[in-house]
Structures are given as C-alpha cells and as structure tokens.
C-alpha cells in the first residue's frame, strides 16, 4: 500500500521494472531523485544521429486523459522517445493502495501499443498545476500533452476548473503544450489547442 508523507511523496515506475518508492520533496522542491535525460538527447544509430525527446502526459481517471495519452503515442512519439505519464494526487487525498494502479495500467497499455517507446509513470501528491509545471522543468520535457474536456456554454462568464487548468498549463509551462480533444465518431479527428491556436481541427 502506498503511503504519503509530508511534502510531495511520489512513486516512479520505469517500463522495465516494477513500482519503487523513490524520494520525497522538501519544502524547497529539492529532490534526491536523478535528473531526467534532458529536453533532447542525441543517440548514435550507425552513421545516423537520431534526436530523442521526452513527452509528458497528465493522466487521471477521465476518458479524455486516456485519449490524450493515445494521441501523444500516435502523433508525437517516435522510436526511442521517453513518455512520462504524470498522475497528480490532491494533497488532501488519503493514502490509497490503488493510487498507482491507474498509471500502471496505462503504462502497460502504452508499451503494448508502442513497445519501441520508453515509458515511465510518476504518481505525485501535491497541487495539480504547480506540480505539473515543476515536473516539466525538472524533467526538461519537450512536449506536454493534456486532455481537453467540453468547453463551457458561456466561457466568457464561467470556466470549469479543468478548463482553467489546461489554459494555465498552455500559458505557463516551459515547453510546447498541446491540449487535445477527440471528436465524436460522426466528425472524426481531434481538436488541438496550443499557445498560438485554439481548437484547431486535426483530421487524423
């Protein structure tokens, strides 16, 4: 059973291993965990130089998070890239043994769909927006992918907490941030939002 202490306690799972408790963050955000491989990695493959990148997808129990993960796998990830699945648990949440199961099952799904992509999962307890922005910087992610829900009927007057979270990530994250929403079966494709364009229809 996972247990959370003071600060941000987290679990990490690499695609080649099981769950291991890594470290806990102090008040200054420092951690003893190893730093990620960097925003871009150059890997020699014969005479060719292949550039690898780290993708990050924020996951939760919603269907849109799974859709965002699959979109990242099919539209952004290349062979040898590292896909980080980040599940942020509220600081007020009680300890629960099934907390890592979501990331574990989605990580397994990723490896089954794209075995050539490296996968890791992080489960972190803390404020959602601050935790995501912190992990983007710490792990030097090159692309952040988010699931986008249905827009409010009156966006000028009211926005849901999920809409505000997505907008703040797009504005504040230190990397390219993409929010995706899968269209209905009758329409097809995805609505894609970035810092420069909103609800761009990608028919793919």
Automatic annotation (TrEMBL):
UspA domain mapped to chain residues: 53-180
Cited CDD domains: USP-like
A Pfam family this chain is assigned to: Usp
Source taxon at top rank: Eukaryota
Name by which UniProt lists this protein: UspA domain-containing protein
Species in which this protein is naturally found: Apostasia shenzhenica
Upper classification of the organism: Eukaryota, Viridiplantae, Streptophyta, Embryophyta, Tracheophyta
């Amino acid at each position: 059973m996972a247990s959370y202490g003071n600060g941000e306690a987290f679990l990490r799972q690499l695609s080649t291993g099981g769950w291991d408790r890594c470290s806990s963050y102090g008040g200054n955000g420092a951690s003893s965990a190893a730093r990620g491989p960097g925003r871009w990695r150059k890997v020699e493959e014969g005479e060719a130089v292949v550039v690898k990148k780290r993708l990050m997808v924020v996951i939760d129990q919603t269907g849109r998070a799974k859709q965002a993960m699959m979109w990242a796998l099919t539209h952004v990830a290349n062979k040898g890239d590292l896909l980080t699945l980040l599940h942020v648990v509220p600081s007020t949440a009680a300890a629960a043994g099934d907390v890592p199961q979501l990331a574990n099952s989605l990580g397994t799904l990723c490896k089954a769909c794209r075995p050539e992509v490296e996968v890791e999962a992080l489960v972190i307890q803390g404020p959602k927006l601050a935790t995501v922005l912190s992990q983007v910087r710490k792990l030097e992610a090159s692309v952040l992918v988010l699931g986008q829900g249905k827009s409010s009927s009156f966006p000028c007057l009211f926005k849901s907490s999920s809409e505000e979270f997505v907008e703040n990530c797009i504005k504040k994250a230190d990397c390219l941030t993409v929010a995706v929403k899968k269209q209905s079966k009758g329409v097809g494709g995805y609505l894609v939002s970035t810092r420069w364009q909103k609800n761009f229809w990608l028919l793919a």
